[in-house]
Specification:
Chain lengths: ~500, ~160
C-alpha cells in the first residue's frame, strides 16, 4: 500500500508541473473539439492529432495523448446525446436513452451525468491501474515468446467474438489485418515482402494510414450514403447538474458500470467495447421498470458512460504492463511511445518510472479537467453541432488530410489513405467490420515476431504452445471463447446484446 | 440435381472478394522463401494467412448458397468516389502549390459528393477552414506543412 502511495505521489509530482498540466488541458480541449464532430471517434481523432505531440518530450506527449483520448471519448458521448450519431461503437448505447433525454429537454442532465459518471469511473480505474501495474508487470517478466504469442492469439479470438455481425466475417477481417501487417521488410532477414518495389511500403503500411482511412474517411463516405436524420436538439439544454433524484437514481448504475467496464477493459482484444453494452443490459435487467429504458432513463446513460470510461482506462493495463495493445487506440499509443523512443512493455515501469506513474496520474487529472472544461463549454459544442453536415464533412475531410500528411510529411501516405478509405467503404457494404482488421494489423508484427522466436527456440516443435502451461491455458481460453460464440444459443444472445434497440 | 441458387448475395460477393485477395497475396508472396517450421522464412506467415483467408472466402461463398442472408443493397459510388478524389487532389497539391490551394480544392471536390451543397457558401467556408488549419498546424504547432509554394517565385 505504501508503495502504491509513493508511486502515485511520484506520478502526481510529474503530472502537476505547470507544463504538463497545460498539455493535459490542451489535449482534453482539442480532443473534445474534434471528438464532438459527428462520425469522428477517438481513433480518427488521435490519428489526426498525433503530429501535434511530435515536438514534445515523451512524458508531455503521452500526457497530452491521454488527454486527447479522454476528450475524444467524451466528445463522442456529447454528439451521441445531442445529435443521435455515435462517434464510435462504444457510444452507440448512449444514443438510446441519452438522445431521448435530450429530446425531452433534459440534455443537460444527460451530459452532466455522463461527465460525473465518467469522472467517478476514471478515479476508480486510475486506482485499479496503479494497483495492478506492479503485480502484472512481474507476471509479464515470466512470459516467453510462446506465452506472448498465445496471449495475442487469445486476444484476437476475443476481438472476433466482441465484433458485431457475422463471426466468419470477423475472423476473415482479423486474418486480413494480420496479412496486411506482414507487408514490408521482414524482421529477421530484411527481405522485402509484398511491397512491389514501392519504397514507402518497405517499412510496412503505416498504422495511421490504415486507421484514418478506415475510421476517418470511410466513416464520412458511409454517412453520406446513409440518409441520416440529423436532428440536433433544438430547444433548451436544461440544467447541467442532474437533480438530486436523478443523482440518486444514477449512483448504483455508475458504480456497477464502473466495475463491469473496468473488468472488461483489462481483457486483451478490445474488451472495453463490450462494457457499455453489458452495463446497459445489466441495468435494464435489474431495473424495476425496464420499459423506461429507451424512453430517456438516466440509468441508461449513467451506467454505460461509466463503463465506457472505466474500460477506456483499464485498457491501458495490457499496454503498460505487457506491451500488448488491446485495441486500436492503444496501438496508436504504442506508435506515439515508439516515436519518442520508449518501447512499451514491462520494462517501462522500472526504466522510466517517472513517465509511467506520471501518465497514470495524468489520467486522473485528465478526467478532472474534462469535468471542469466540458460543463461550461457545452453551449459551444451545441453551436458547433448546429453547423450543417454539408459544411461539416468537407471540413472533416480537410482536417483528416492535413493530419495524415503531417504524420510523415508524405503526400504518398495521403494517396494510400484514399485507397484504404474506398476499401473500408466497400468492406462495410459487404458486412465486414473494420475494428477486427485494425486489431489484427496492430498485433500482427508482435505476433509474428514471437511466433517465429518460439518456433526457433523449440526447433519447429509446435507442441511448445501446449506444453507450456500458461500458453496452453491462454490458447484454450481463446478456443473456448470462439466455440462458445458459435453455439446457437449464445449467438442469439450476442446478437441481442449488440442490437439492443 | 436442382439448380444452385444464391441465397445471400452479400455473402457471395464478400467471399469472392476474400478469395481474390487471398489469391493475390499468395501470388505476391510466391518469391519469398517459406523456410521450415523450425526456421520460418519471410514467406511463411503471409502464405499461411493467405490460405486461411482463402478458406474464409470459400466458407462464405459456400454459406451464401445454403443459408439465406442479406441482399447486396444499393451501392452508391458517386459520393465515396468524390471523397476519395478530394483526398487525392489534396495529396497532389499539398507540396506544390501548398495548403493554401490544396485546402479549398479538397473541400470543394468533397463538397460535390453531397447534393445539398451550396457552392458559394462552401467556397467562403473552405477559405475560412483553410485559414484556421494554417493558423493551427503551421503557426501554432510549427508543423512543416507547405502553405504556399510557387516554384521560382515564392515559398512560405
Amino acid at each position: 500500500m505504501s508503495l502504491l502511495l509513493s508511486n502515485l505521489s511520484l506520478g502526481f509530482s510529474v503530472a502537476f508541473t505547470l507544463h504538463n498540466l497545460a498539455l493535459c488541458f490542451v489535449g482534453c480541449l482539442v480532443g473534445t473539439l474534434i471528438g464532438v464532430l459527428p462520425g469522428i471517434g477517438p481513433i480518427a481523432t488521435i490519428t489526426m492529432l498525433l503530429p501535434i505531440t511530435f515536438g514534445l518530450p515523451p512524458v508531455g506527449a503521452l500526457i497530452m495523448l491521454a488527454g486527447i483520448y479522454y476528450g475524444a471519448q467524451y466528445g463522442g458521448s456529447t454528439t451521441a446525446i445531442l445529435v443521435n450519431i455515435p462517434g464510435e461503437v462504444t457510444s452507440v448505447v448512449t444514443t438510446l436513452d441519452g438522445h431521448q433525454m435530450a429530446r425531452q429537454g433534459r440534455a443537460g442532465a444527460a451530459l452532466g451525468i455522463a461527465a460525473l459518471g465518467s469522472f467517478f469511473a476514471g478515479c476508480v480505474a486510475t486506482l485499479i491501474i496503479a494497483g495492478l501495474a506492479v503485480p502484472l508487470t512481474r507476471l509479464a517478466l515470466l512470459f516467453g515468446p510462446a506465452e506472448y504469442a498465445a496471449l495475442m492469439t487469445a486476444g484476437l479470438a476475443f476481438a472476433v467474438v466482441l465484433a458485431r455481425g457475422s463471426i466468419l466475417k470477423s475472423i476473415a477481417m482479423v486474418v486480413l489485418g494480420l496479412l496486411l501487417s506482414t507487408v514490408g521488410n521482414d524482421l529477421e532477414t530484411g527481405a522485402e515482402r509484398m511491397t512491389f518495389g514501392v519504397s514507402s511500403l518497405s517499412d510496412g503500411i503505416d498504422f495511421a494510414v490504415l486507421a484514418m482511412g478506415l475510421f476517418g474517411f470511410a466513416e464520412v463516405m458511409r454517412n453520406l450514403t446513409v440518409d441520416q436524420a440529423r436532428g440536433v436538439v433544438h430547444g433548451k439544454i436544461g440544467n447541467l447538474l442532474p437533480s438530486r433524484a436523478e443523482l440518486r437514481q444514477s449512483a448504483g448504475p455508475v458504480v456497477r458500470g464502473t466495475l463491469v467496464g473496468a473488468i472488461l477493459g483489462i481483457l486483451p482484444g478490445n474488451g472495453a467495447v463490450l462494457g457499455p453494452f453489458a452495463s446497459y443490459a445489466l441495468e435494464k435487467k435489474i431495473a424495476r421498470d425496464p420499459g423506461r429504458f429507451g424512453q430517456g432513463a438516466i440509468e441508461g446513460v449513467a451506467g454505460p458512460e461509466s463503463a465506457n470510461n472505466a474500460g477506456a482506462q483499464t485498457s491501458f493495463i495490457p499496454l503498460l504492463t505487457l506491451g500488448i495493445p488491446p485495441n486500436a487506440v492503444m496501438a496508436l499509443m504504442v506508435g506515439a511511445m515508439t516515436i519518442h523512443g520508449i518501447v512499451p512493455g514491462p520494462l517501462v515501469m522500472t526504466r522510466n518510472a517517472s513517465l509511467f506513474w506520471g501518465v497514470i496520474a495524468s489520467m486522473w487529472l485528465g478526467n478532472l479537467m474534462l469535468l471542469v472544461i466540458n460543463l461550461p463549454l457545452i453551449g459551444a459544442w451545441v453551436r458547433l453541432l448546429k453547423v450543417p453536415y454539408r459544411l461539416m464533412y468537407p471540413a472533416i475531410v480537410l482536417v483528416c488530410c492535413v493530419g495524415i500528411y503531417s504524420v510523415n510529411n508524405s503526400p504518398g501516405d495521403v494517396l494510400l489513405t484514399s485507397g484504404v478509405a474506398l476499401f473500408g467503404y466497400a468492406a462495410s457494404r459487404l458486412g465486414f467490420e473494420s475494428a477486427p482488421l485494425l486489431l489484427g494489423f496492430v498485433l500482427g508484427r508482435l505476433l509474428e515476431e514471437n511466433l517465429r522466436r518460439a518456433l526457433a527456440i523449440s526447433r519447429g516443435d509446435l507442441s511448445v504452445f501446449i506444453h507450456r502451461p500458461v500458453s496452453a491455458w491462454l490458447l484454450l481460453t481463446g478456443v473456448v471463447v470462439l466455440v462458445v460464440a458459435v453455439l446457437p444459443a449464445i449467438r442469439t444472445r450476442r446478437e441481442q446484446v449488440f442490437v439492443e434497440e | 440435381m436442382s439448380r444452385v441458387r444464391v441465397r445471400a448475395p452479400q455473402d457471395l460477393v464478400a467471399g469472392a472478394s476474400l478469395l481474390a485477395i487471398a489469391v493475390f497475396a499468395i501470388w505476391a508472396s510466391a518469391p519469398l522463401s517459406g523456410g521450415r517450421l523450425g526456421a520460418p522464412g519471410p514467406g511463411f506467415l503471409p502464405r499461411v494467412l493467405a490460405i486461411l483467408l482463402g478458406l474464409c472466402g470459400v466458407a462464405l461463398v459456400g454459406r451464401s448458397l445454403v443459408r439465406s442472408g442479406e441482399a447486396l443493397g444499393r451501392w452508391s459510388w458517386r459520393g465515396p468516389g468524390l471523397i476519395a478524389l478530394a483526398v487525392v487532389a489534396f495529396a497532389l497539391t499539398i507540396r506544390v502549390p501548398g495548403l493554401a490551394v490544396a485546402g479549398p480544392l479538397a473541400m470543394l471536390v468533397a463538397g460535390a459528393a453531397s447534393p445539398e451543397t451550396r457552392w458559394r457558401e462552401l467556397a467562403i467556408f473552405s477559405l475560412g477552414t483553410t485559414a484556421v488549419c494554417i493558423a493551427l498546424f503551421r503557426s501554432l504547432l510549427h508543423l512543416p506543412i507547405p502553405v504556399l509554394v510557387l516554384p521560382g517565385l515564392f515559398t512560405l
